[in-house]
Amino acid sequence: MEELIKYIPYLIPVVFVQLILLVVALLDLLKREKTRGPKWVWVLVILFVNLFGPIIYFLFGRDNES
Description:
The protein has 3 helices and no strands. By secondary structure, the protein is an all-alpha fold.
């Protein structure tokens, strides 16, 4: 347990960044009319691929036309 406690200061910023990316990606997905692929698939990617899901959405999922 002491091993885990000493890593908490390093984990808090990672969790914070992950939550911000998740919220921003979901809000962006909701306001877009078109995406590259079905929106429900992007919701699953954003929610279940942890830190990389929102990044994958921002790189590949957004349609630049809207």
